[in-house]
Specification:
GO molecular function, one term: oxidoreductase activity, acting on paired donors, with incorporation or reduction of molecular oxygen, NAD(P)H as one donor, and incorporation of one atom of oxygen
Distance between the termini: 27 Å
Organism: Micromonospora craniellae
Shape: globular
Largest sheet: 8 strands, mixed
InterPro entries: FAD-bd (IPR002938), FAD/NAD-bd_sf (IPR036188), RIFMO-like (IPR050641)
Protein name: 4-hydroxybenzoate 3-monooxygenase
Keywords: FAD, Flavoprotein, Monooxygenase, Oxidoreductase
CATH superfamily of the largest domain: FAD/NAD(P)-binding domain
Number of helices: 13
């Protein structure tokens, strides 16, 4: 096969990139290790920032999102037994977030994608501008101008780069999230972020009859130690929400919290996009949106390259990393603010309490949270298309 860009990975980053390349007349092919059914059902993120929604709307991929997504103009912070609402609309000039499950977005992106997707590929190897793999039992090769590594933290793209070519920055947090999906009505109209002496809790939703909820737990937590009764009791205690309903828990898992960045996000003709280049703790709801922002930046650079302005493509890594580190800072700040972290003392706890007081009392502090949460502007626009 011969194409201009080979996209490795059919998550939000790879699929968005493929759409944006196609809109510019740039040929690409997408390869994915998992089956279509798997990637359309795996539970991941659920919060879309304003810039992400605006992009999807402009390129014609937001019809179902607009119908079924849940528009939120704020979030609730709960601590010391009181709930405080952060009003995004007031603080950001009308911006909002949309709660829409990642697997639903992936379905939308796949259903309308023109470039081909090869699912269930195996033994992927990246050798400069040649990508080899096995598909349906047959060894295949794609020769291309550029490779977009959108295959996540554990993918082959970053692993194919020679040792020493990248600098890695990492922080592993001393806690994890126990997440559940439950058949219950949401206890509130907007997300609840709760800081409690027992640990952090988050109440979110995936629709009018399904909730997504999280509890801070130790990183070595086993699911067998958390039967349903214990989960509901901990959520009730930490959230302090009288409207919290109990119901069938039909999905659960433990997710570690970590921050990770590699620099640069390019090696030769290989570009790293999304989780293959960076991981953020889930507290700020940034992972999917950061991946989309990378895809926008890379599509801009590739479009400029094929239009005769190669210097724009050379700016890809620097453009992305400025935004990546801003998002990392916000996610780190939210995590430190709301979690009980080992290694801290009573003085640290009082500082966190003072910061929470400032966020809910000082308009400038609340605005900083709101502007970061609804989403920073992309490094480049997309109206140039």
């Amino acid at each position: 096969m011969r194409t201009q860009v080979c996209v490795i990975g059919a998550g939000p980053a790879g699929l968005t990139l493929a759409h944006l390349l196609h809109r510019q007349g740039i040929e690409c092919v997408v390869i994915e290790a998992q089956s279509q059914a798997h990637i359309e059902s795996r539970v991941r993120a659920g919060v879309l920032e304003q810039p992400t929604v605006d992009l999807l709307t402009e390129i014609g991929l937001a019809d179902r999102l607009r119908r079924e997504g849940m528009l939120h103009h704020g979030i609730n912070l709960r601590f010391d037994g009181a709930t405080h609402r952060i009003d995004f609309a007031e603080l950001t000039g009308g911006q909002a977030i949309t709660v829409y499950a990642q697997q639903e977005l992936v379905k939308d992106l796949i259903a309308s994608l023109a470039p081909p997707i090869l699912f269930e590929v195996d033994s992927v190897r990246v050798d400069d501008t040649r990508v080899s793999f096995v598909h349906e039992g047959v060894e295949r090769t794609v020769d291309c101008d550029f490779v977009a590594g959108c295959d996540g933290f554990h993918g082959v793209s970053r692993a194919s780069i020679p040792t020493g070519a990248l600098s890695a920055y990492e922080r592993v947090y001393p806690c994890a999230w126990l997440g559940i999906l439950a058949r219950t009505k949401p206890a509130a109209e907007e997300l609840i972020y709760a800081r409690h002496p027992d640990g952090f809790a988050l109440h979110s939703m995936r629709g009018p009859t399904v909730t997504r909820q999280y509890l801070q737990v130790p990183p070595d937590t086993s699911l067998t130690d958390w039967p349903d009764d214990r989960i509901w009791a901990a959520l009730s205690r930490r959230l302090g929400e009288p409207g919290l309903e109990q119901g069938e828990i039909f999905d659960r898992g433990v997710t570690a919290l970590r921050s990770f960045v590699v620099e640069p996000m390019r090696h030769g003709s290989l570009f790293l996009v999304g989780d293959s280049a960076h991981i953020v703790p889930a507290t700020g709801a940034k992972g999917l949106n950061l991946a989309v922002a990378d895809a926008v930046a890379l599509s801009y650079g590739l479009g400029a390259h094929y239009a005769g302005t190669p210097d724009e493509l050379a700016k890809y890594s620097a453009r992305c990393l400025r935004r990546v580190w801003q998002v990392q800072h916000f996610s780190w700040w939210m995590t430190a603010l709301l979690h009980n972290l080992t290694g801290t003392d009573a003085f640290d706890e009082r500082l966190r309490h003072a910061e929470l007081d400032r966020v809910v009392a000082a308009p400038s502090a609340a605005r900083n949270l709101a502007e970061n949460y609804v989403g920073l502007p992309f490094a480049v626009g997309w109206s140039w298309r």
